[in-house]
Design goal:
Elements: H1 2-26, H2 39-52, E1 60-63, E2 78-83, E3 90-98, H3 105-114, E4 118-119, E5 127-132, E6 142-149, E7 153-161, H4 170-186
Antiparallel strand pairs: 1-2, 2-3, 3-7, 4-5, 5-6, 6-7
Helix pairs in contact: 2-4
């Protein structure tokens, strides 16, 4: 009887051990370096641009929600603002919005053209610029506005001087364009 119990316990232990091994070998834990992109993943690189490449003194980033919110959970668009002290007229803003799936791409291009945007050549993706750096008698500010679109997202960036002409070089605009393309494309992950 004792020998019978040992065989039963041994068989039971083998079944339990086999089940545990089977479960652990079937269970897969995903370890990935990639994560769902967040609003911060879009806004923070642009914030750094305003710290280093087109410096705004004491620049601060503001967003009405959580920067850790994934972009896939956005209800509408995300708008981030970049500004320094109130006495500093330099400002920036960025927008991220879902691309209009099914919309004729030429429709968006026509809208941009109607608003005075021009294709900015020499970049890794199509990007449009509305360049109004010089304050004119009919405007109150100097502004550059950039717009790009990926398969899933539209990204825009505005750089402005609220009181006069905007002193920004073509090279700085090119850097901003490249960065906007890169950050907008990164939202596709």
């Amino acid at each position: 009887m004792r020998r019978s119990r040992l065989k039963t316990y041994s068989a039971l232990l083998m079944c339990v051990f086999g089940a545990v091994v089977g479960l652990t070998s079937c269970t897969r834990t995903e370890h990935s370096d990639s994560h769902a992109p967040t609003v911060g993943d879009f806004c923070n690189p642009l914030f750094n641009y305003f710290k280093t490449d087109f410096p705004i003194d004491n620049v601060q980033l503001s967003y009405g929600g959580s920067l850790s919110q994934t972009v896939n959970d956005l209800k509408g668009n995300a708008v981030c603002s970049y500004a320094g002290d109130l006495s500093n007229p330099l400002r920036g803003a960025s927008w991220l919005a879902p691309a209009q799936n099914g919309e004729d791409p030429s429709a968006r291009i026509n809208i941009l053209k109607e608003k005075g945007y021009k294709l900015l050549p020499g970049h890794s993706a199509e990007i449009w610029v509305q360049d109004s750096r010089e304050k004119r008698p009919d405007t109150t500010k100097g502004v550059v506005h950039l717009a790009t679109e990926t398969s899933r997202w539209q990204g825009e960036l505005e750089i402005l001087n609220e009181t006069g002409s905007l002193a920004i070089t073509d090279a700085q605009i090119g850097q901003a364009a490249d960065l906007l393309i890169k950050t907008t494309e990164a939202m596709n992950k």
